[in-house]
Write a structure and sequence with these properties.
The chain has 103 residues and is α+β, with helices and mostly antiparallel strands. The chain contains 1 helix and 6 strands, in the order E-E-E-E-E-E-H. The chain is 24% helix and 51% strand.
Length: 103
Amino acid sequence: MEKRAEYVIRLGAGDRYRHLHVRVRERIVFFRVQLETRVGGVWLPVVRYDTAHGFAHRDLLDQKGRAEKTPLFNQDLNDALTFAEKDLKTNWRYYKQRFLEES
C-alpha cells in the first residue's frame, strides 16, 4: 500500500521547506523536497531535491527558473531523502544568499 506524506515548515519570515514523499511499506519510491523563498510577494523555488527523470538529483535554481542539475550517487532513495532533508535544513541560508546574489 502506498503512503504519501506532505508538509511545509517555515524556516524564516520569508523562507520555507516544502516536503513530499511517497513510500511503499518502508521504502521511499518518490520524493520532492525544496527550499522556497519569498521575493516580491511570490514564493520561488531556490533548491530542490527530487526523483523526477528516474533518478535522485539536486536542482540549484535561479530566479529565472533555470536549473543546474547534480545527480545524487546514492541509489537508495531512503538515504537520498535523508541526505536532502538534512542539507536543506542545515544550509538553507547559504542557498538563499546564493539565489538572491546570482540574479
